[in-house]
């Protein structure tokens, strides 16, 4: 049977195993990220001032308004990061006090155990008597029980602080990262990694007069032809220019891989200048569950214009949700490992049949061309969602997965004939299907 002294020692050990250093580091990371966010806000203000001199008309005013929204977003994010840092410091201080109290209680208990051991050792050597020893045993153990109760109170007090501050942290929207999936990185970490690079990126653009003018014109093709700028954008934002196909795509490590997917993203399209068709008809999505694993899968397609009409293209995204997920908000994670799909996507003119470009899996790591997201965007105005068609082939890991995707796509197509989506099985080895989407 575990003695009261062992229980005190074990409970104190659990309290002392917490790391105030880790909490300190988290608070510091939040404040570092806050500084980077404030730097980014200042940069946005500077960029807006420059762009306001050359951007006019409805699209220009809309873009400037979006920059104002982004600046406000940075202000909100900086506030959240500061409040998060304070929460981590409150938990740190509460843990430090709990650890100090736990050490004191454990030392008291060890002294009592030593005293009790001495009583019984004296009795074994003929000192004292049995009645006295039993009396001392009861008194010391009763005192130890009081110490245990006090220690439990210490733990309960700390738990209350942890619960309260943890709730504050969990309820932080994170602003930019508020819709991230369950496997997202720590918001402070992502913000620190990415936002600290924005001033450096701006400096690269500013040192080259051609790039500075290109930024004012919104000429991203020219900007992305600079190897230093292109590499930095790819390293931290995932976007890469494919010169052969004249389109932009994204790497598997992109920021989007941490954000996962949520229906609300589609509703945010206009804010970031995207006017897209998407396979999300009235909230009906292409989703299915693997009965063997319980994992939920979602396939979504997009096509249309980007950058407030300055670019056009399409996307094919594949996402997963774990069977034990209890998140009520409907987040999906970007597909990983064997769940990733190999997509060849074409964007074409529905009236003439002209193929504008084709992405055969560019952006995927390695040579397997498997990705969670096939994106292709060309910087060219004048193309709109209703003019564009999207066709693709999708290769998956086995015929069972292929058939489940096929069945769900044909169900969706039948339920929404206005989407003009046709689907065909292509082969079993490898497992491939194809579709043509002419919404």
UniProtKB/TrEMBL annotation:
The lineage of its organism: Bacteria, Bacillati, Actinomycetota, Actinomycetes, Pseudonocardiales. This is DUF4474 domain-containing protein. It comes from Amycolatopsis rhabdoformis. Residues 232-412 form the DUF4474 domain. InterPro entries: DUF4474, ESAT-6-like_sf. Pfam families: DUF4474.
């Amino acid at each position: 049977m575990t003695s009261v002294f062992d229980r005190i020692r074990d409970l104190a050990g659990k309290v002392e195993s917490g790391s105030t250093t880790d909490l300190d580091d988290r608070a510091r990371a939040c404040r570092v990220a806050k500084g980077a966010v404030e730097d980014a806000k200042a940069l946005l203000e500077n960029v807006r001032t420059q762009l306001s001199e050359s951007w006019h008309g409805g699209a220009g005013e809309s873009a400037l308004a979006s920059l104002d929204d982004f600046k406000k977003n940075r202000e909100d994010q900086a506030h959240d990061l500061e409040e998060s840092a304070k929460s981590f410091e409150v938990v740190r201080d509460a843990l430090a006090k709990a650890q100090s109290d736990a050490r004191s209680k454990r030392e008291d208990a060890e002294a009592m155990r030593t005293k009790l051991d001495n009583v019984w050792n004296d009795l074994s050597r003929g000192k004292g008597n049995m009645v006295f020893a039993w009396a001392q045993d009861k008194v010391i153990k009763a005192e130890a029980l009081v110490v245990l109760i006090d220690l439990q109170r210490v733990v309960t007090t700390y738990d209350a602080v942890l619960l309260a501050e943890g709730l504050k942290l969990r309820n932080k929207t994170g602003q930019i990262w508020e819709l991230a999936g369950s496997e997202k990185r720590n918001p402070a970490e992502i913000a620190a990694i990415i936002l600290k690079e924005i001033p450096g990126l701006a400096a690269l653009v500013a040192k080259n007069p051609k790039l500075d003018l290109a930024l004012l014109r919104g000429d991203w093709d020219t900007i992305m032809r600079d190897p230093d700028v292109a590499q930095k954008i790819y390293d931290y934002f995932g976007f890469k220019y494919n010169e052969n196909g004249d389109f932009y795509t994204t790497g598997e490590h992109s920021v989007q891989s941490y954000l996962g997917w949520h229906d609300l993203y589609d509703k945010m399209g206009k804010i970031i200048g995207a006017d897209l068709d998407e396979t999300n008809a009235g909230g009906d999505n292409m989703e299915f569950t693997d009965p063997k694993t319980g994992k939920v899968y979602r396939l979504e397609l997009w096509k249309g214009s980007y950058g407030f009409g300055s670019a056009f293209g399409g996307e094919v995204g594949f996402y997963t949700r774990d069977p034990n997920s209890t998140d009520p908000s409907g987040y999906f994670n970007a597909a990983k490992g064997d769940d990733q799909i190999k997509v060849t996507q074409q964007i074409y003119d529905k009236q003439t049949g002209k193929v504008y470009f084709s992405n055969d899996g560019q952006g995927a790591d390695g040579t397997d061309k498997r990705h969670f997201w096939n994106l292709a965007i060309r910087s060219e105005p004048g193309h709109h969602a209703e003019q564009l068609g999207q066709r693709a082939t999708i290769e998956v890991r086995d015929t069972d997965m292929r058939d489940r995707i096929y069945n769900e796509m044909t169900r969706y197509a039948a339920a929404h004939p206005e989407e003009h989506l046709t689907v065909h099985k292509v082969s079993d080895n490898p497992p491939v299907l194809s579709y043509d989407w002419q919404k």
